[in-house]
Amino acid sequence: MPVLTRRDSSADTARLQALRGVVRAGAEDRPGVYRMVTETGEVAYVGKSKRLRSRLLSYFRAEYPAEKSARIVREAHEISWHYTPSEFAALREELRLIKSLRPRLNVAQKRDARNQCFVRLTGGRAPRLTVVRGTGASERGGVYYGPFVGAAHLREALRELSIALGLRDCTLDGKMHFADQMDLIQLPARTPGCLRFEIGTCLGPCVGAATARVYGQRVREAREFLEGASDKPLSRLDQAMREASGRMEYERAGILRDRMQRLEALVARFSRLRFAVESLSFVYLVPGHEGEDRCYVVRRGVVRHEQQTPQTPEEWRALEQRVRDVFRAHELAAGAVPAHEVDELLLLTSWFTTRPEELDATVPPQALGGT
Ligand code: SF4
Questions:
Q1: Which range of residues forms the domain containing residue 32?
Q2: How far is CA 292 from the centre of its chain?
Q3: Tens of pLDDT along 317-347?
Q4: How far is the centre of ligand 1, averaged over its atoms, from the C-alpha of 192 (Å)?
């Protein structure tokens, strides 16, 4: 069996043959999720497939022992599975299991999100803006904006925004002190040796150079800017540019103009993002295996309600009420994504981007009572 290495014993061969026998005898070719369980009972891997039986049998046909599927199945002492109504349902179930079980060998979500990044506004005493991959967002917390493709330009633009607002961009988390909260901690009046503090582009929460109120106000301005509710950072730069021009400091005025252009490009990107995420709002009707049809009420790229597709006028009316409830519920400002919704937003974005024909199975919320 090519799945095995030379070090594997005849007992390993027998175990894998027995596992293959279990799959052959019991697995059907329909959508579902599966778990690879080790000798100690650890769920080492979770996967999904549109055709479960074919997918599971393919593990035993890996051509080289070093292949990922061979490595996964070599660890398995048990393979368990359950069926789902559709591939879409399997994908969501796989995500749920990966989040709850955290299987050691799973890299599926990382793979899907390789090119996707988010802007993250961190929590903590002195929040900062950073660019991160979407995976693991629920453990990190904070507020997210995305997904975007292309981290490099985003990083550059965020740096401009941080400079324009005096927000920190360092990783000194946990060492922040505000001028109005220093009764217990006396810091020497010194700079941290950070160039940004020296040239006045950071408010300096690492040395208690700003009050919590002023820093918090700048964080709010950053949020409002990213959410399209304020253009204060641009106004500040515009004013500074005019003043520099007035003083005939044309080189500085040119630098400020370039900064403004980078921020304007960021504004345009966020505006496109808000539109894209907002347009992922609909009722998605998914035909299921042997009539297990499901419908999903999706708002801003996240499933807010799921149920069997209605069959009677009464059931449709009940669904309309659910749609109304979902679309009336309070949400963060447009474009902002709570950390716990990042993985699902990535999943749905990827699903509808790679299968645009699935949008034909969606119904605008307005058609079912949403606003
Ligand atoms: S001045 Fe302090 S808080 Fe600001 S970026 Fe530098 S080290 Fe970080």
A1: 10-106
A2: 29
A3: 999 999 999 999 887 777 788 888 888 998 9
A4: 7
